[in-house]
Amino acid sequence: MAPTRDEPVLFSASAGCPEGVVVINSRCRIQEREGYRVVSVSGLPLAHFAAGDRAGEAYAMVSLVDLGWARQREVARAFGCDVRTVRRNQRRFEEDGLAALGRPRGFPRGRSRVPPSRREAVNRWKAEGVSNREIARRLGIDEKAVRKLARRLGWQERSAEQRLMLFDGADPKLSGLGDPEGTSARATGAEAREAEGGPADPKLSAPTAGPAPAPFSLDHDPSDRSGDRLLARLGLLEDAAPLFGASTGVPGIGVLLAMPALVDSGVFSIAREIYGSLGPAFYGLRTTLVTLLLMALLRVKRPEGLKERSPAQLGQVLGLDRAPEVKTLRGKLARLAAQGCSAELGHALARRRVDTRGHALGFLYIDGHVRAYHGRREIPKAHVTRMRIAMPATTDYWVHDASSEPLFVVPTEANRGLVKMLPAILAEVHTLVGERRVTVVFDRGGWSPKLFARILADGFDLLTYRKAPYREVPLSRFRRHQATFDAHPLDYWLADQPVRLEYGPRGRRKRLSLRQVTRLSESGHQTPILTSRRDLSAIEVAFRMFERWGQENFFKYMREEFALDALVDYGTDPADAARDVPNPERRKLNAELREARAHLEQLQAHYGLAALENRERRRPTMRGFKIANAALAARVRRAMRRIHELEAKRTSVPTRVPVQEVVGTDVVKLAVERKHLTDLLKMVAYQAEGDLVRLLAPHYRRTEQEGRTLIQSALAAGGDLEITASELHIALDPLSSPHKTRALAAVCDALNATATRFPGTSLRLRFALNPEPPRSSAFPGPRNHSGRNQPDILERG
Fold first, then answer.
1. Tens of pLDDT along 660-696?
2. What's this model's pTM, rounded to 2 decimal places?
3. Other CB atoms closer than 10 Å to residue 317's CB: what's the count?
4. Per-residue pLDDT, 201
5. Neighbours of 140 (CB within 10 A)
6. Which of 66, 628, 659, 789 has the most Cβ atoms closer than 10 angstroms to its Cβ?
7. CB 760 within 8 A of CB 259
8. What average pLDDT score do residues 552-581 get?
9. Three-class SS of residue 36?
10. Phi/psi at 363 (5° precision)
11. SS3 letters for 503-551?
């Protein structure tokens, strides 16, 4: 029988070679004779040492590998040792030379042994089920040292397994494979809620239409999900269950800090209730939502941004072998958008938000966000304030609570103004808050006394700026007001007075009584604020009105960090062709009228100047003046006739016409569904980030200035993953400074108290921080102005 690769090749005399020869490869061999060993290369001796000389044997191994005559595996096989022994000898030779190769056997002298107390502690903690990483953290040593010590103490390492239903082919109904609809493998009650990552108590979970599918998998290796992909291809799998594996140095694993807030928002259970399923797929509804939400938190602003991310590394965060790529993710978005349920999803998320944060809904801020469009489609124009220009754009109206947290968003068609959109928005608010009376805050875009009366009749209070023209308040009526709101000291000069607004047609004018609070700035500018709230102090009215700038900051943050203005969908939808728009013919006539009137005023000015400069000695009568300026008078009369003709022509032209007559082609609008859906998911991601900031506030002094920046750094941090039978341990790398790391550790403790499960698994999320690397204890010398160390300057005698 031919020798195997892992056994030394010994040639005996019967085979034609002397006995005691070990062949390393085609060029190298070892020959033992009279108690000595000779290592030869192509017949030339390379090393000669006694049979028991460990240093000589180690040096022969190192020489063969370093000179390139043999590989590590070949040398280890020939000398009857492990490959790690060859590598260890190479490392010792490189560091300390030949002396290191002759080290005697046994424990090195001078190195401290493991104290008995540490062995007892490790034994006790291992019996309690504490992980190696946690033991290493408690002892302040490396995890590898704990693993070796546990192995010496008799503890066998075993790979943790998630509690998934593993199909072995015996009973297809057990795993849901016998039922393509997946109804036979669905959990019920608390199990379904636990599988979604939420608490088992139904009072704490979001409403669901039905139980979630119990997670199952054909695969055991997290890096190879070929079994589940086969099931998806056969149409027998709706969504791949997350399957995690222990790993170190996972980039972006800190984004899982937001998972408790995402689960608490109810987005997964609500989406399952509304959308049901995406059909047979490896990347199902839950996986798609988790991917989109974590992408937003990792600042992957568009699906195309996945091209710059490693699918395998992002898959480690998702519990998959690979994350979905651009084409797959776009297909999932298109399938979700085809159902047309984004408005229903937004309403359900807002209702969930109202139930959990109802205390922040005393004031609701409403404002429109204009998204500029640079494509080739013919869409209506809108004024983009930040660009100070009118251009093709779309407008969405956002509603925020008193903490400047978004509640819901309403897309509009043809950039309808706030006056027309407010009734529909308030009707949506009324369905969310019920009979509760809230105060709506908006800017001058919603100015309409008639609308104000309707708002008050619908059970709302209002707070807005007064639109010009208005009379300024005498300076003698201003008083100084000081107060503190939300830890912000305020100092305003305010004037408080009642006002009456008139609206309606002439002869039937109606009056509306409101309250006006006017702020006087240091420059002398007056800012009048109107409100129906007479129970608030004047300074609180001003404070609540000026808090509207939180919405503007939100729009700026979302544009820069979440790409709120990004074009998600290049498609179009049919628009209302009967929608009336300003008549362009009338616009042209108005322009001609303005030009004709300006020309008439110019001619009249010349005629008046001629009358002023008329010399009475030459033309003492008006008759003589008219005769002398007859040509100029004829031009004036022609200009007046031109104006009368244009005015008569304008009266016959309608003010507004259907948009179909103006465009002439198919009336389209930018596709709304996919954009609305992605905006809602970005809103949920922003809310989750805000929840983490609130957890950080008690432990970080500069939360208001740097809170979101710190959380963003934590979400992008790398770390280690470790799996136990019931928990998913995430150990994050330390942040840039110790005080930030301590604040993040406190946030981790608060998140651990929620006992949140990763969606689709029964694993509870446990967060911790890896110990900081040891720092050098050397005392830095004095520094010069360039920042470099310099030696002390000795005083000369």
1. 777 766 777 788 899 999 999 999 999 999 999 999 9
2. 0.71
3. 23
4. 41
5. 7
6. 659
7. no
8. 84
9. strand
10. -125, 130
11. ECCCCCCEEEEEEEEEEECCCCCEEEEEECCCCCCHHHHHHHHHCCHHH
